[in-house]
Amino acid sequence: MTTSTTASLVSVRLITDDVAALARFYERVTGTSAHWSTPDFAEVATPAGTLALGSTRTVALFSAGSARPADNHTAIIEFLVADVDAEYERLRATVDDVVQEPTTMPWGNRSLLLRDPDGNLVNLFTPVDPGARTTFAADHTE
Fold first, then answer.
1. What are the backbone angles phi and psi of residue 70, rounded to the nearest 5°?
2. Is 3.10.180.10 the CATH number for 72-142?
3. Could you give the C-alpha distances from 136 to 10, 93, 119, in angstroms and in order?
4. CATH 3.10.180.10 boundaries in the chain
5. What confidence tens digit (pLDDT) does each residue in 24-48 have?
6. Euclidean distance between CA atoms 10 and 13, whole angstroms
7. pLDDT tens digits for range 109-121
8. 132-141: Cβ within 8 A, 24+ apart
């Protein structure tokens, strides 16, 4: 058996007091239905990886107090989309907190920044300049 030092990112898990509210939000954002394993755990699978949603009740299974819901101040959950402006039009009436309307960033992505019901930052983006398109063409397109 060969061991490898390369790890593969499989999912990001958000801990929340309201799994159903987060699941509805991410279903709306991604257009993908959540898969529910239990009332305390759901996953929204995308072609690039899975967003897992766990209830605060699941934290004790890892280590009591190791994660706190709605307490993220550093991470941004990002989704590559075909047309960020169209996504903004589709979502703006149903998303409570739009932090930044579609804006072209200096690195060549057009980005829409939202907050999910727990306050986590969510970035929907579309590469718009040639350099950004090249960066995402090989590994991130469906």
1. 55, 40
2. yes
3. 19, 29, 27
4. 72-142
5. 999 999 999 999 999 999 999 999 9
6. 10
7. 999 999 999 999 9
8. 132/107, 132/108, 133/108, 136/80, 140/48, 140/80, 141/80
| Residue reference for tokens 């469906």 | 142
Topology of 9-61 in CATH?
3.30.720
**pTM for the whole structure:** 0.87
State the burial class of residue 46 (Cβ atoms within 10 Å of its Cβ: 0-12, 13-18, 19+): middle
Query: What are the start-end ranges of the E strands in the chain?
Result: 11-16, 35-38, 41-45, 50-55, 76-80, 97-104, 109-115, 121-127
Report the pLDDT averaged over residues 83-92. Answer: 97
Which residues belong to CATH 3.30.720.120 in the chain?
Answer: 9-61
